[in-house]
Amino acid sequence: MLHTEFALRRPVTTLMVFVAIAAIGLIAAGLLPLEEFPAITFPGLEVSIPYPGSSPEEVERLVTRPAEEALATLAGVKRVSSTSTADMARLNIELGWGRKLEAASFDVRAKLDSIRAQLPAGADRILVQSFSSADQPVVVVRLSANEDLSQQYDALERHLVKPLERLDGVARVSLAGVQRREVRILVDADRAAAHHMALPELRDALQKSNFAVSAGEITERGQRFTVRPLGEFHSTADVERLSIRPDLHLGDVAEVALVTPPTEVGRHVDLRPAVGLDVFKTTQANVVDVVDRVLKALETARDLPSLQGIKMVIVGNQAESIRNSLTELRNAGLLGGLMALCVLYFFLRDGPTTAIVSLAVPCSLVVTLAAMYFLGLTLNVLTMMGMMLAVGMLVDNAVVVTESIFRHRERDPADAVATTIRGVSEVGVATLAGTAATVIVFLPLVFGERSQTSIFLVHVAIPIVVAMIASLLVAQTLIPLLTSRLPAPKPQPAGSFVGRLQERYARALRWVLRSPWKTAGLVALTLASPVPLFALGLVKVDPFPQGASRTLILDYKIDGSHPLDRVEQAVNRVEAFLQAHRAEFDIETIYSRYEPNQAVTFLQLTPKKSAKLPAREVLERITKGLPEIIIGKPTFKLDDSGGASGFSVQLTGESTPVLADLSVALAHRLAAVPGLEGVHSEARSGDREVQIVVDRDRAAEVGLATEDVARTVAAALRGDKLRELRSGDRELDMRLAFRPNDRQGVDDLARLLIPLPAGGQLPLSAIARFHEVPGERAIERTNRLTSVVVSGGVAKGATLDEIRKRVTPVLDSFPWPAGYAWKFGRGFDDNDATLATMLQNIGLAIVLIFLVMAALFESLLYPLAIVTSIVFAVIGVFWLFAATQTPITLMAMIGIMILVGVVVNIGIVLIAHVANLRAAGMERDAAIERAGRDRLRPILMTTATTLLGLVPLAVGDAQVGGGGGGPAYYPMARAIIGGLAFGAVVSLIFVPAFYAWFDDLAAWRRRLAARAAPAAQRSNAA
């Protein structure tokens, strides 16, 4: 061990190196950016193609389908889904994680540009957008007051938005629910008709009278001047005084006013009108620092006189989530580390030795922090989880090395340096193999195929890998250096607890080696023991279990589209019920957001520490007492821990109305399936609409085209946007439209004057008929198939796999028309893909561990015996999960993958010592018994420290994201604890037995080869 010898020869140099590394790590800890989750750009693009004033069917036929056909030839596309509405085509392109997003975005633009000429006029704007986890607001504020705040844009912008935007690290601040005032030119239909004035004529006059252009340059007196004709409006009075005709001003037929645009989205906070304020950070800014500055600025703004009466409610705060999550992990790590320290002292019974061994933890962690900084990682819940998981394993190498050193020093106390080198060398291969086994399980994640699971787990894996490698270097350099300067602790007395354990273990090994058939029977029973657990349903596989976090989401499932005030009435009815039971349901904040066709209420419950009821029980109680509303059916959305999509069934066919009817009927049937709740169709009915059918012959007689009529009607109802009005340092939007009183109903529409090309005007009723009919539905398509989704929640205690078995017969027996089919939705695909990925990674990890051990031991025999410990460890996971009713989630699979690399250390330490003893001339069975005695204490110490380091997570309720909607840590901790505890006990017995059996098999093959050799020689001689 050259590095060990160097450390012992150059102690000062070695200490200075570690002091320097510690200093770098501590400096890096202060420089590492704090984030909730690492910034990851998701492999998907959203394409928006506006086409206003159309219908869903027309958008789908003229815009969506050509775009889908163009994108179908793109490489690396997994799924293309589209939504066609009356105003827009929206396509979501899901790519593989290995696809470079910049190149994919360029390819998408190129494909769509190639069909731009095929798109209808007015659909020439193509917007392509990507999404990243860093795009989320760091602070979400809701401003509420007793009065409507929609008129307070100027005050909010001046006293809140602008000061916040000036803060260091703030990229932008967005206001929602309140808009800048604009100049509205509201035409009086009767006056306009009396003066034979049509909207197009007014629009042309306004456009021609409000301009500022550069006309070129002139030279005068040797100087060059820019010529810039001005004809701009500077006030509403200028607009009113505009002369339209010699005897007519704009003010004679229209009212010019500075107004606030009508609200399209309503918000309530605690039953009061509200607006939204979202703060976004710059790319490199520290989230916690930015949020602290924003919160301080908000506190200052509360005292401003102009903002009195406005309540600021913080409904989203990434810094708080980061602090909560990191604090939970830190506390669990500190408590686990303290418990591990107590275990070390219990076994070592020596304070200085315990302190030296414990140095492996801080030394390894500061190295990890330094490596994270130079690798460009951040300190987030995933990297922190990796370091916390490593805490219990960082002392493993130090324990094994220290125990070996002191055992050699007991035999030869005279030469501390030589015995130290011999002690380290004896376990050098074992510690290297153990560290390699722990590290190598993460190779499939770091270098394998990228997926939604692996892309996040890489941030967990890197800290563990770095920390474990650092712990190996510490154990083979710093630990020997320090222990060589201390006197060896007194050996354990024969009657001590450890001594008695060693004696009993030696007797157990003798029985195992002398009773191979009975041992084989115990092995068979152990291997078969999980079968009844799965047969009885005591162990369930559910990668993404649905659960309720402390933020509940109530979706109103609005049917159709309604006036905003009617939707608000429904929201008020539900909010009144929630307010009446606020204390009973642990409700802290009630926040609602509603539009004409959808509404959602977010319930922020009191924190877990002060909660009276679990979130799931609150959800169930609210569901039972929730009042009915006429326009919808409120249903809670449940979290899918880890990001899956829950239960859904996708129906495909040609006709959207037929699919909608089928989905409603199917949802009614599925509602009776046990384990499903809140089943509903996601098909929404279209808006009621008034169709204007133009008489083409009559219109042609007066020289009108259908397009002219449509443009005039659109301008009258929606208004025509004009050039901005420049007033002082502000630019105000201007819009021309009829007064609200003149566009109330069909009669007003019938009296609308249409200008004729030859002069004069004609009422719309003279050339058109009006029909009130149901509007067309939005058209959803997935991979170029028209589709509708039926979705629902999974009840407590049920899993998607169980639901699949119960739902399949219902779907198969449903009367599907010809050309219509079904398939399970993304939740099932995510489950299957995640399960397959994790099983593949675990299988690859086992193969890689075997390859590494075979190379290090230069043998196939030893790795085969050691790898058997993995099987027994997984059995232990099943037993603990059955006893604690814990499902096998994604986090549990991560725990099993880590377990694979940890549990083999037991067999490595044991079998490596057996090999050394046999190489020294000891008989096999005696070597196994001696190795068991020598290695029992370090195995128990390393196992106990790892187990106790995870106990706080295993019994707690900490979640990824600080108690938000992320998955819980406890399945992962329980998987490692159950597998390692059971695997340690069983491996200490069965791994030596397998070693002996494989050794007998190898000896038998050698005897066969020896017998065959003389026969072959005689045959050759003959």
What does this structure look like?
The chain has 1022 residues and is an alpha+beta fold. Helix content is 53%, strand content 19%. The protein contains 35 helices and 34 strands. The strands form 9 sheets. Strands 1, 2, 3, 4, 24, 25, 32, 33 and 34 form a 9-stranded antiparallel β-sheet that branches. The two termini are 53 Å apart. The model has no long low-confidence stretch (mean pLDDT 81).
* DSSP strand tally: 34
What is the global morphology?
elongated
Low-confidence stretches: none
Proportion of residues in β-strands: 15-25%
The major pleated sheet works out as: 9 strands, antiparallel
Span from first to last CA? Answer: 53 Å
Instruction: Provide the structure class.
Output: alpha+beta
Overall helicity: 40-55%
Provide the residue-averaged pLDDT. Answer: 81
Q: What is the CA-based Rg, rounded?
A: 37 Å
Number of helices: 35
